[in-house]
């Protein structure tokens, strides 16, 4: 799989900017929801072996809260919003005043709230991308899973799996002001989508 | 006391263990299937972490045999036979093939990848006349599996649905 080798430095910068704009809008949405400042880190764009993708969020077996949506339309791909359990608990406490038992189980109400938060954030990530690129990007209804990172993320690697053992990942991390809540966005465009993203932005490719 | 030998099998990877005190392990199975083959006499075991059902959809040049159900199972059998396992005694167990996320409205076939992986593995086992002794497949949750070569026991661990031995 040599997609990353074929991508020049400035094309990687374009993908970073894609992550920057998407996550920037999502961070603004989160900041409004929490009524607190939210910081964002510079996106990382990397071609990673499948194993290392889960390692970057604490290993395959680490339990994470993931909101996943499949992007359909002109440039299909997979979008994950990932929270640790601690972050999710803090988010629920701060935002909706739900007190969370620490046994790791969630009520229907809490799950529904998390799902909705993910929905809002992922929605704003994606709609800002659609505005930027003028591409038709339609998200599926987001789906929530609380499970092992490896099990959850492997779902987003199927399209890359047909081409090799690496996937290109646009990874953006953001932190709430006092660093109690930390969230990650993983955008994994399908391999065929890169040419569409680049051409929509007037960036030469191939 | 002799330490057990633990060998990890990564995603789209396979391994053979020819040590009777050995353990084969693969973590974070979602839609992927963890399949184990075992020859009880020689205590030789093999494990594969299958990611995709069929190599027909592959668009890579040199395919990774361990990734696809239809190529990994023959390869695992071949490697076990090389280590001295009898192909006529091999039996199978498997776990995984979950549907981690549920979608209404999407007709994308990749969303059904878990069940398709399971079906494809079963077809291959049938083709090689390998009996499937136990399976823990489907559902919407992830699994980590460990296979104990001394007993042929498969331990299945989950985040929210407890542990299981088969």
Written description of the protein model:
The complex is a heterodimer of chains A (206) and B (166). Chain A is α+β, with helices and mostly antiparallel strands. In chain A, 44% of the residues lie in helices and 27% in strands. Chain A contains 8 helices and 8 strands; from the N terminus they run ααββαββααββααββα. Chain A has helices at residues 3-6, 9-34, 50-55, 85-96, 108-133, 149-153, 158-161, 193-200, and strands at residues 38-40, 44-49, 63-73, 77-84, 137-139, 143-148, 166-176, 182-189. In chain A, strands 1, 2, 3, 4, 5, 6, 7 and 8 form an 8-stranded antiparallel β-sheet that branches. The longest helix of chain A has 26 residues, at 9-34. Chain A is globular, with a radius of gyration of 16 Å. Chain A starts with a helix and ends in a 6-residue tail after the last helix. By secondary structure, chain B is α+β, with helices and mostly antiparallel strands. Chain B is 17% helix and 34% strand. Chain B is built from 2 helices and 10 strands. Chain B has helices spanning 69-82, 113-127, and strands at 5-8, 14-17, 22-29, 33-39, 44-50, 91-96, 132-137, 143-148, 153-157, 163-165. In chain B, the strands form 2 sheets. Chain B has a 5-stranded mixed β-sheet with strand order 1-3-8-9-10, with no helix packed on it. A 5-stranded mixed β-sheet of chain B has the order 2-5-4-6-7, covered by helices on one side. In chain B, strand 4 (33-39) and strand 5 (44-50) form a beta hairpin. In chain B, helix 1 crosses helix 2 (113-127). Chain B is globular and about 45 Å long. The two termini of chain B are 26 Å apart. In chain B, 47% of the residues are buried. At the A-B interface, helix 3, strand 3, strand 6, helix 6 and helix 7 of A face strand 3 of B.
